[in-house]
Design brief:
With 496 residues, the chain is α+β, with helices and mostly antiparallel strands. Helices cover 41% and strands 21% of the residues. It has a 6-stranded mixed β-sheet with strand order 5-6-7-2-13-12. A 6-stranded mixed β-sheet has the order 8-15-14-11-9-10. The chain has a 3-stranded antiparallel β-sheet with strand order 1-4-3. A hairpin with a 4-residue loop joins strand 6 and strand 7. The protein is globular, with a radius of gyration of 24 Å. About 9% of the residues have low confidence.
Length: 496
């Protein structure tokens, strides 16, 4: 048995009738001259490589009353026929038909009594292609873990030799509630000791954290302006425009902690929209070279340009810039072959308040570099330590309440999540068939009704957008604007 970390377990605790903790991916296989693999072939592939697919073999065991985080146990009753499923769109299925099916499939929670994953073979696509939609709970994997799972299933050639077979671990006896209750009670007894270690470690890191967050500078700036602001707040002197809360939010820059309110930042419903598109990586790199920025800057600039135009066309563009959260791996090199979550986030501006695309891109580059410097200066395991410090019973209940409360009462520190994942620039094969595209299908939560994730692969930038169906009913409009934003950057850079 292996216990979930606090970060892993949080993805379970935040689940609700409207929020789901799984992440997904849509793979498009193109058979070219031959048939696509069928159910039996895909099932055989998974069976033969099951020794490499640890998260696909394990199920959860809960501690009664959430006295401690749950455990993973090797499932003695693993049933691949349950997890691997056939479905289809009406042929010839176009992208929008496929996306609508994906949106419905990802809006269904995973069965917690079984290993937390599902695979759907989507038949009926145009050109005889096959779609593979994989759902895996975020409690089991992060982005690096997902890439490791995928690498275990893919080959470098259509006729590549399969990996050497290995015996599977022996199925474990699933402990009953009395045994798990005893573990939970022991955890409660030892928690004061562990909490003390956490506080001592955090105390030692406070100078590093304070320097990274520029706490002295922020306190100094606040102190210098406090007398006048306090007097005006107490009615002594004429009230000024900058004392208005909206103006204070608008004055927030890189070091601010709030983002402008948009349609993406409220409570979400249970239904989803999904849209995807693929753009040439060569064109992204051409903009990078011409303007002296990074590929990640260009990708963020494309998202910013699309979001700016989308909101402006609807009369909803805020005067201040949208902010995004960017997932960052904190996995050590010696943890490369492990699963679970070793991830944190940094936040940066998308400069959507700037009309000029080149200036917008420059500001994005500056802000992401500043965010990266701040992130690198913080202890790598800070988020993990905090998540493990909180008592599980409180975390389990507070997580759901907190997210819904924030969604209904205030504006979060960022408007959406944007993740750019570099991938291999050569073709890969699954069951002898070439993988043409890999579209990420991430998750949304209360306050974050839109997620954009990008995977580069074999000369393409594959964009996957997920949104709350009510908040962004016209998600394809936003997806189509990504190409417009890239063309805008190319024109500004003088690229024909």
């Amino acid at each position: 048995m292996q216990q979930l970390t606090g970060v892993d377990a949080t993805f379970l605790y935040v689940e609700s009738p409207t929020t789901f903790g799984h992440v997904s991916s849509l793979i498009i296989l193109d058979p070219r001259d031959g048939p696509v693999p069928g159910f039996d072939e895909i099932k055989a592939l998974y069976q033969d490589r099951l020794h490499l697919l640890t998260p696909f073999r394990r199920r959860l065991v809960r501690v009664p009353f959430d006295l401690d985080h749950p455990y993973w146990v090797e499932d003695p009753d693993l049933d691949l026929d349950f997890h691997i499923r056939d479905t289809a769109v009406a042929p010839p299925g176009d992208d929008r038909q496929v996306a609508e099916l994906v949106a419905r499939l990802i809006a269904r929670p995973l069965d917690r009594s079984r290993p937390l994953w599902e695979l759907y073979l989507i038949h009926g696509l145009e050109g005889g292609r096959l779609g593979l939609l994989t759902k895996v709970h975020h409690a089991a994997i992060d982005g690096i873990g997902g890439a490791k799972l995928l690498a275990s299933l893919l080959d470098l050639a259509p006729d590549a030799d399969p990996p050497e077979p290995e015996a599977l671990p022996d199925p474990e006896t699933v402990p009953g509630e009395p045994a798990m209750l005893a573990r939970g009670v022991w955890s409660l007894a030892t928690r004061p000791y562990r909490s003390g270690r956490f506080l001592l470690k955090t105390a030692g890191e406070l100078p590093q954290i304070g320097q990274a967050l520029d706490v002295p500078g922020r306190l100094g700036r606040a102190a210098s302006s406090m007398p006048q602001g306090m007097l005006r707040a107490l009615g002594q002197g004429e009230r000024r425009a900058e004392d208005d809360p909206d103006a204070l939010d608008a004055a927030s820059t890189t070091g601010g902690i709030r983002a402008p309110h948009t349609r993406f930042n409220g409570a979400i419903g249970p239904h989803r929209r999904f849209a995807f598109t693929s753009l040439p990586l060569s064109e992204v790199k051409a903009v990078k070279q011409a303007l002296g920025v990074t590929v990640n800057d260009v990708v963020l600039g494309m998202c910013a340009g699309a979001l700016r135009r989308y909101l402006d066309e609807r009369g909803e563009l805020p005067e201040t810039s949208l902010r995004c959260a960017i997932p960052v791996s904190v996995r050590d090199p010696d943890e490369a072959n492990t699963f679970g979550n070793k991830v944190s986030v940094m936040m940066a501006s998308l400069a959507t308040d700037v009309a000029d695309p080149v200036e917008r891109l420059r500001l994005i580059g500056e802000d992401t570099r500043h965010a990266k410097e701040t992130f690198d200066a913080l202890p790598a395991d800070l988020l993990t330590d905090v998540a493990d410090f909180a008592p599980p019973a409180i975390t389990a209940r507070a997580s759901r309440v907190l997210m819904r409360t924030i969604a209904n009462t205030t504006t979060p520190p960022f408007n959406l999540m944007v993740s750019n994942v570099p991938g291999p620039q050569f073709p890969l094969y699954l069951a002898g068939t070439e993988m043409r595209h890999y579209f990420p299908v991430s998750a949304v939560t209360d306050t974050q009704a839109l997620n954009i994730t990008i995977q580069s692969y074999n000369g393409s930038c594959d964009f996957g957008m997920v949104a709350c169906r009510d908040a962004v009913p016209d998600l394809w409009d936003l997806s189509d604007l990504l190409a417009t934003a890239l063309d805008e950057l190319k024109d500004a850079a003088g690229i024909s």
